[in-house]
Amino acid sequence: MSGAANKKKFVFTGRWIPEKSDAGQVYFSGKYWATDDLGLGLDYRPLVDSVSFTATYRLISEDPCGLRPAVILGTSVDDFSDGGDSVESRSYYLTVSKAFPDAKFWGITPSPYVGAVWINELDELRPLAGINFRHKEASLMVQYSGTDTHLTLTRSLSDNVSVSAIYWGLKYPGLGLRVSF
Fold first, then answer.
1. The dihedral sign for the CA sequence 119, 148, 175, 38
2. pLDDT by residue (tens digit) across 48-77?
3. How far apart are CA 125 and CA 8, in angstroms?
4. CB atoms within 10 A of CB 156
5. What b-and-e string marks burial along 31-51, b requiring 16 or more CB atoms within 10 Å of the CB?
6. What confidence tens digit (pLDDT) does each residue in 104-137 have?
7. With 0-12 CB in 10 A as exposed, 13-18 as middle and 19+ as buried, what is 151?
8. What global pTM score does this model have?
9. Is the Cβ–Cβ distance between 59 and 72 less than 8 Å?
């Protein structure tokens, strides 16, 4: 989710990472944006037949011309690493993010974020951080999820469709698809 207002009402995503545990290999998510700032949805993991609720709320929208960052709250279920083991857990997060279009170099806009995530199954508060580098139809995201570092290279095929190459935990390659309307 970016710090700017969302203009799409429905977002559907899918992820395939063949070397992950059953809970993380195949993942689908559907989200309805009830307002520009509130998204509600369901995640489905077919290999373990698990359905979970997801929500995202933008407390403060980013000021694209000024210095005000976005502040975003959310909850979801995902799989996290814990000493080499994969743990599926509900998590709650808060992030602060800001795009810096005036800091463009070679046409690339950096958008860093920082925050914290509470991971129920680990009973711990962990740091979150990352940066997205966007250039026209392509972007590279480097993120730390509270337990692992991930890379995602995304190419927008249209205003509504994008595909991604994922390097989960810097050890598991995968693919992603996003469709919005």
1. positive
2. 999 999 999 999 999 988 889 999 999 999
3. 32
4. 15
5. bebeeebebebebebeeeeee
6. 788 899 999 999 999 999 999 999 999 999 999 9
7. middle
8. 0.89
9. yes
